[in-house]
Every structure is written in C-alpha cells, then in structure tokens.
Write the structure tokens for this entry.
Amino acid sequence: MSTEREPTATAIATRFIEDRRQGRRSSIDEVLASFGAVGVPDVTRVAALREIARRLHEGREQEGSSAHAGQLTDLSLIAAPLPVLDGYDIIDVIGRGGMGTVYEAYQQATGRRVAVKFLLDAGAHAPAARHRFEREVEFIARLQHPAIVAVLDSGVSEGRYYYVMDYVEGTPLDEAIAPPADDARLALDCVARVAEAVDYAHQRGVLHRDIKPSNVMIDGRGDVRLLDFGLAKAIDPERGVAVEQSLSEPGQLIGTLAYMSPEQARGLVDQVSVRSDVYTLGAVAYELLTGELPIRVAGALADVLWRIANEEPRRPARLRPGLSSDVDAILLKALDKLPQRRYATAGELAADIRRYLADEPISARRQSVVGRCGRFVRRHRQMVAVVGVALIALIATATASFVRIVAERDRARAAERAALAEVAHTERVKDFLHDTLGFVDPDVVQRAEVTIVDQLDYAASQVEAAFAGYPLEAAEVRHILGHYYLQRAQYERAETQLRAGLAARAGLLGKDDLDTADTQHELALTLHARGELHEAEALYRAALRTRRVHDGEKSTRVANSLNDLAWVLKDLGAYAEAEQLYQQAIGLRSELLGERNAAVANSLNGLAHVYYKRRDLEQAERFFREALEIRENPADGHVSRVDVAATMASLGGVLTKLGRFDEAETLLREALAIRRTLFGDEHTATIVSMNELGLLLRARGDYAGAEELLREALRLRRLVDGPVHPNVAVSLVNLGLVLQARGELEAAAGHFEEALAIWRTGGELADHQNIATTLGHLANVSRVAGKPAEAEQYCQEALAMRRRLFADDHENVSVADTSCLLGEILLD
C-alpha cells in the first residue's frame, strides 16, 4: 500500500472533510493534532493532503452535498471537482467573484497554507479580463506590506490564469466589528490601519477603487488585511492621478455602490484619484460608527447615483449621540463631495484619526455656518439669485434705521470682530493652501508630471503676492511649507521658508509668542538635520523657554522641546545634560500620555542612545529593551514597524558590543528586512541597518561579508545624501575599520582622512565627538603602519579635543581611552 493510502492519512482526510461538512474550516495541522502522536508527522501530513485532494478532485464525497447547497464554505463546494495545479494541493473553495474563484490550498514544497485565485474560464478568453487579472497580480506583487495580502506565485495552468497568495484566516471587517461599533475607538483604529495600508499602495502607484468591509479581513491576531485589487488602477504616486489607459468606458461605474465616491457615481473614470479611495475609507468608517451608510442606496439606480453625487451625509453625531465633534469633522472631511476638500492622501486621514485617538488636536475642522451656506448656494444658484435681489432691496430701505443701532453696538462687538478676523485669517490660509497644494491639474500646470516638491515650490513662489498686506498669514503659510519641505528632506528650501516665517512672527508677535516658538522649533529640527547643531540647540532652548512660560511645566509641547533638545545635546556630546532632559521628557510624557505611549518609547530610545555613547552598554540595553517592548505592544494597539525596526537595530548594535553576536544578528537582520520591505534600499534607515549588520560581521571576524555590506552602504549613502553629508563620513569610518582589520592600512587611512574632512566642513562642529573619534582611528592605523610621529600628532589632537568636550566629566571613558592610546604610542 502506498504512503498516500495508509490508514492514518485516510482517517485524517475523512475527518478533515467531515469538519468542512459541519462548517468548520480547520487547517490540516489542527486536524492532524487532534489525532495525537503519529509515526512521521511530516510524511503523514503530506499523505493526508494528497488523499484530501484526490477525493475532492475526483468528486467522491457527494453525500450530504444537497443539505448544504448555497453555503460558501460547505460540502456543496468541496464536493465539486477542483482544479489541479502543479506544486499545490487544492482542497476547498473559499469564494467566487466576478473575475475568478479562490481556492484553499497547501504548497507542496513548504507545506504552507495558501489561497489560489483562478480567472474564470469565460474571462480567460476576453482580453480585457485577462489584462485586469494580470494587472491585479502585478499590483499586489509590488505591495509588500503587513496589512496587504502578498502574492507568492503566478502563472498559467492548463490555459487558466492563476496567482497564489497568503491564506488569511479571519473575519470581514463589518462582522468582526458589527456596526454600530460598541467600541468607537477600536473601529477608528482599524480604519486608520486600513488607511495606512491604502496610503502605502498609493505611494507605490496603486489605486484600489473598491475598498469596502468585505475586502478587509481581521485575522486571529486582530491585524487588518486588505484584499481584492481586481479593480485597482495604476497612478502616479506623486500626483495621485491615473497614468494608465482605463479599461473602463467613460460613464461606466467602477466600485461598490454603497461606498462609491461622487466622481465614481458620475462615471468620471478619469477623475478618480487617491482622494476617491479616501472617500470610500470615510464611508466605511461612517458605517462602522453609525450603523448606516453616508448615503442611502435604496431605490432606482439613477436616484441613488444622484444622491451620492449631490446629497450631503448627516452628521455622524446625529445618528450616534455622544460621538465627538472631532470624529464628525474627520468623517465629513473624508466624505466631502469636492475631492480637493478631502484629505489629500489616505495617510493624512490615518494621521488625523491617530491624533484624535491620542487626544491631540486634529487637522480637520467642523464645517462653519459660512461653509454650509456656501454649499447651499452652489446647489441652489437660481433660487439664491432671486432671493438675493429681494434681500438687497429690503436691506436698502432698512439701512438708515439701523445705522444708529449698529453704532451703539460697535463697542460690544469688538471681541466678535476680533474672532471674525481670526476666522478670516484662517480661511485665507486654508484657501491659499487648497488652491496651490490641495489639487494640481496637469493641464493647468502644462507638465506631464507634477511632484509634491513641485507643488510646494509653486506655493512658495506665490506667497508674497497672495498675502500682500497680510504678513501674519504669510508667516503661517511659510511655516507650513517649511514643515512639508522638512518632511521630504528638502532642508535648504525648508530653512528658507522657516527663517522668513520666524522673522515675520518674531517681528509682529514678539519673540515670546507661542507661534514664534513653534517656528523656532521647526527651524531647529531643520538645522539639526543639516548638521548645524549649535544654532539648532539655541532655537530648541528658546522654544522651550517660551512654551514653559505659556504652558507651564506640564504640557506635551514642553515634553517635545525637552526631548528634541536632549537629542541635539546627545549629538553634540553633552551627554550629562542630554540624560537629564531625556529623563524629564520620559516622566512628563508618561504622566500626560501614559507609560505605554509611543512618545515615551521615543524618549526611552533617545536615552538609550546617550548611554550607548557613554559606553554604559548595560544601561543602553535596558532602555532599548524598554523602548522596544512599548513599540511592539503600545497602549493604542498601533504598532509602527518603522520604530520597531529602529530600536531592533540599535539594540542589535549594543549586543554586538557586548559580544552576544547570535542575538544581535537576529535583531539586525530582522530590522534590515523590515526596512527593505517598507522603504527599499535607497533609504537612510535601510542604509543604517546595512552599516550596523556590517559592523556585526566585522566583530565576528567575517571581514569579507562586512566589507561587501559596508561598501554597498557607502555607495548608497553618497547617492542618497550627497558626497559630503555626515552620514557618508559614518560609512567611510566603518569601512575603514574593516579595511584596517584586513591589513589594508593605506586604504583604511584614506577612508578615515576623507571622513575627517567631511566632519570638519561644518565649521561649528570643530569640537564634535565624531572628529575626535576619527582622529583616534587615524592615530591607531598610523601606529600599526609604523608611523609613530603621525600617530602621536593625531592622538594629541584627539585627546585635546576630548578634554574640551568633556571638561566637566573627569572620568569620561573616551578621554581615558585616548590617554591610554597616546601612552602606548609614546612607549613604542
């Protein structure tokens, strides 16, 4: 009897199929475990899968099928003949859609549980259907995100197109969180996670176009998984608009009616953009929170489409009393009929939800009376025109009677006028940003491609003319532009805008105004990123003083200033004060935000870096582990894989120094894998991970592996940061250390000298710790090369510099090490 026919495998197959008949979707491993110990588990598992596939493919389990007819996961489907696919055991039908059928299967080579989607036979003969199916495969394959189901394989089998993806065992979003959600914050957190996945897809050129609860699964761990890119469309990720010829005819409806955006409802396929996906996310959130769709979809199709395109949704708080006005503002902004008034990206929607969940100010604002009136006028222009004429006549005859009354009320309304002036200020800024940043039409700009930086440049060029006579508004816009330039690493442009905004605010509002302090802090962040550390420190301190005066000692703004001032002091080598400030920030953030807040983890991470710089590796390990534990299990449940990878990498570096190489390598490789998935290779974070893993390999004595990684990191550093960026100097030093270990002393010295030249380009950084460290490396390599005079010169300079840096720290380890090295050189 063959292995496939042994009694144990037969019994397992029988129980598996019986479980499916009873509506239980147990995995093969769960069924196998129910039998207890078996002879050779892996062999038995494979044999059982073969037996299940054989029976189902040959259609031998017909009994009882009629009792379950119409049930998607029952025997009516598994009794039907199943397709055969080399390398896979197909054992069940998961579901059917307009384009294809999805099957449950196991990959024979790995035993992995997967889902296989086959294009329907009818679609295989239609070029448009094949194109859509192939495009879906291409789109999902380019998306490597934990909340998006990944493609593992694809091809054509016996004339049928297919692709293989991860098997997601879970529940549709609206079943896992039945509307109206009992826990509104949990529902919003899930929507934010979906929005972050959608934003990731947008940034990689994929527009979903069919986001709905049934296309979002909540798996057994509570994670969200976005499915079904069958209607997806290629877009320019910078502009958020289509770059491919649509497969739909003009006027054709694309998407699910209940969650369809106004532009989709009008059939304006070419106007569908990332903001259309924002609308559908808003519709999903609205339904989860209120139990109702934003627009009723009952009745004739023409009437429903008109309502989607024109009817305003009711405020969510009217349907769910007690719902925060901030939630109203977020949902109604996402659901705005005009795309340019919605959130510009799904990421912005997610960020606003995160701000609400963290009890921070949101960017959306409740719609004013003026705004609602404006919408009414746009929808009823003719009626408003007639009524307007009548009102003008009435006002003209009544004006004289009211002049005296208005004059008497002027004093009482002074405060009201001031408030209205503030509203006008805000509206002018908002309108300007909407016109220049919110929506850019390539036909207007006369360009084939418009990047975000292009939009910022255009807005910056219009500020002076647009705000002539309104210097405060101009200063606010420059602050906003500077912030977004900084987010995109456009440091010179950011500095230009922020310096102009700071000069205006300081001149008009005074140096001790909160708005002035905000711009000081933003400019400090920019200068810090550029390596201008001393000026950044001065600005951080000025902003901290002002915030303490206005907010007192206990505010999140004060905590932010403490944290960022500690950060720059750490980079300047002022470790004692940096440690003190980080401790203050940790205490304040824990008190205000809770001990498991992401901001607390950020400060713990910074404090760990201080201890690492001071070579107190035990304390560094302790605080990195505390930060990592919070980042992996935050109070709000939102795990930032970016932050997790950063702390993993730092902890791996500490463990490398402690000689715990195996544990360090596991962390460093995991961090590098996360960063490559999230960012690709040409990103600072990925390059940092390459450097850290290269240093570990050097410590393990794998000099060839270390050199390969560090040379690639250096190449990428020069490409990403430019030839004289401090990050390039870091890579040069690391590679130089490996070359020195391999005995290539001249090449190592050349790398150290090039790094030293870069460190010294900053002028103000003449006493920076990195310069002293690099001088020490040059002293060491010169000593080994038999050049004692050069070694002594480098070492004397390094020692003098470290004594200046740590004048108040007489037991500093760096000073002691340099003194020892000088002693060894003199003895030689």
The two ends are 80 Å apart (CA to CA). The mean pLDDT is 78. The first strand starts at residue 88 and ends at 96. The chain has 36 helices and eleven strands.
